[in-house]
Amino acid sequence: QVQLVESGGGLVQAGGSLRLSCAAFGRAGSDYEMAWFRQGPGKEREFVGGISRLGGSTGVADALKGRFTISRDNGKNTMYLQMNMLKPEDTAVYYCAAGSRFGATQKKHYDYWGQGTQVTVSS
Predict the structure, then answer these.
(1) Can you give the C-alpha Rg of the chain in angstroms?
(2) Cβ 28 vs Cβ 18: under 8 Å
(3) How many other C-beta atoms lie within 10 A of the C-beta of residue 32?
(4) How far apart are CA 8 and CA 31, in angstroms?
(5) Which residues contact 79 (CB under 8 A, 6 or more apart)?
(6) CA 88, 93, 94, 98: dihedral to nearest 10 degrees?
């Protein structure tokens, strides 16, 4: 079993950057495929991007490519989401998730979830 804890959210102006972290406690982070999701006000939770167990493969939603980058450090059992050139539409609660299937875009394919971290982008 694993516990996931997100951090790094906050308030940022449009055009700014944030780096989110998701730390895994319990089993090693390398045991899982991991992903980031987000849920904006009044919206469905949507897939942001994922990273394979050893970090060799990453995938980011088409609309976010070029601005968002996912990485992981298995030595620290931590996954990261680097967000650049943030827009107001990026405002959401960001969640990390862990499961056994790389690249899955639906939340039902992930077994473990963090509590989320709020990202607010102002104009």
Answers:
(1) 13
(2) no
(3) 26
(4) 23
(5) 21, 22, 24, 29, 34, 36, 51, 70, 71, 72, 73, 96
(6) -160
* Encoded tokens for 77: 């059992």
12, 86 Cβ separation under 8 angstroms: yes
Which of 69, 110, 115, 68 lies closest to 95 in space, CA to CA?
115
Residue pLDDT tens, the chain, 123 long: 889 999 999 999 999 999 999 999 987 667 789 999 999 999 999 999 999 888 889 999 999 999 999 999 988 889 999 999 999 999 999 999 999 888 899 999 999 999 999 999 999
Q: What is the dihedral of CA 55, 51, 97, 43, to 10 degrees?
A: 160
